[in-house]
Amino acid sequence: MSLRRILLALCATPILSVSGVAGNITGDHEQPSVCYGDAAHGRLERGRRLPYSGENYRAYSMLGFGLGRTYVHSVVRDVMLDAYAELAQSHPELRFIYGESGWATGGRFPPHKGHANGTAADFFVPVRTQDGKVSLLPISSFNLMGYAIQFDRNGRSGANTIDFEAMALHLLALERAAHAHGIGIRRVIFDVNLQPRLAATKSGRQVLSHLAFNKQQAWVRHDEHYHVDFRLPCR
Ligand SMILES: [Zn+2]
User: Fold this and answer.
1) Could you list which residues have their CB under 5 Å from ion ligand 1?
2) 182 Cα to the center of ligand 1, angstroms
3) Which is more confidently placed, 40 or 6?
4) What spacing in Å lies between the alpha carbon of 13 and ligand 1's midpoint?
């Protein structure tokens, strides 16, 4: 089934039960998640998710959130939250959107190829308008929850331009938070034609020297989002 057909089917699915927008925040008594196998064939126990939105971030879609498509391993959830918290302090003007990551129990996650064991997450690119104001991608069912938004080689899409510096700051914050939680970042997938634009920013240079990126174009173009594979021990 094509990516487009799967996403269209998803968009047409009514929300039967939106299970709250609070996500599940770490409690002192929370049992950590357990991941099994790899991102392609594994699974997850006790998956957790971020709240639908916070001070400087939100999920890509209320529908996708309600359907349970934003679960990750509890440590990855903590890393994502800590990165946003750091950025809220250091760059309070920036806004971020996280994308799909997986089911609460992992397993196959069409149309994505990985995302099976809670160790991967998608992030939509931060954008600014042509006059430099911080903006958000116009995500809706008309553009397949944002995944069908196209950027040109200069990182422009309609009125929006990718804020490569903000993207780099986010990746650096994720790397720091991952390190603080005793895990790492295994790989970042992003459009190879846009990677030089990322490298041209101050923080982007650091990101590309610290983190491993795909060298060849991925099976779907990752221009509107970047995919992060975290490195953490699974059974
Ligand atoms: Zn992905």
Assistant:
1) 122, 227
2) 22
3) 40
4) 21
**Residue 62 pLDDT class (50, 70, 90 cuts):** very high
Domain boundaries, the chain: 3-10+32-230
Answer for the pair 48, 77: CB distance below 8 angstroms, yes or no.
yes
| CB-based contacts of 224, cutoff 8 Å, min separation 6 | 124, 125, 137, 146, 147, 148, 149, 150, 151, 157
Q: What global pTM score does this model have?
A: 0.90
Predicted pLDDT at 26:
53
Span from the CA of 109 to the centroid of ligand 1 (angstroms): 10
Reported confidence tier of residue 4, pLDDT bands at 50, 70, 90: low
CA of 95 to the centre of ligand 1 (A): 20
Class of domain 3-10+32-230: alpha beta
How far, in Å, is the centroid of ligand 1 from the Cα of 115?
Answer: 7
Mean pLDDT of the region 173-201: 97
Residue range 108-123: average pLDDT? 96
CA 131 – ligand 1 centroid, Å? 30
CA 113 / ligand 1 centre spacing (Å): 8
Is residue 15 over pLDDT 50?
no
